[in-house]
From TrEMBL:
This is SPT13 protein. GO terms for molecular function: guanyl-nucleotide exchange factor activity. It is found in: Cytoplasm. SUPFAM superfamilies: DBL homology domain (DH-domain). Its main location: cytoplasm. Residues 1-23 are annotated as: Disordered. One of its GO terms (cellular component) is cytoplasm. Keywords: Cytoplasm, Guanine-nucleotide releasing factor.
Amino acid sequence: LRVNQEEVPENCSSIQDEEHDADISKHRQKIAENKDQMRTNVIQEIMNTERVYIKHLKDICEGYIRQCRKHTGMFTTAQLNTIFGNIEDIYKFQRKFLKDLEKQYNKEEPHLSEIGTCFLQHQEGFAIYSEYCNNHPSACIELSKLMKQGKYRHFFEACRLLQQMIDIAIDGFLLTPVQKICKYPLQLAELLKYTTQEH
């Protein structure tokens, strides 16, 4: 009896070791899959926010700036430069950036997308945001002066409706580039968190 009792644990322990190894292996696989899923989520968030942002920039350039330029009696060139800054340059830059991001995006396996290179290739281009951000307080002052008059409030609202833009006032739209440039470091930090060393 005693001999049998001693032998059984030996056999059991080797079976238990195998089961334990299999559990660890499954657990590791689950963690890896989870990490891939998290990375997919971050990549898709970056891609989606980029597409929405381009739409906002397009709306500002075509919905507001184009209409304002037609009404020379209402706006001077200097006023438009103050209000909109270099947002048209930003729109041009971001279109190119998005195009390159789309090329790097892996539709079949999004977690394998290598979008870091896009940020490195365009790092100097992002410098155009400093001009826009530095000008933003002046834009807000100029805009609030105009908004005290009913005709300007109605004009900007008409532009928004004509372009079928979402229900945000013009100052909200003009804040988006400032918010966007601040969001990139957060998105990249999140991406890095779910990126393996060997990626």
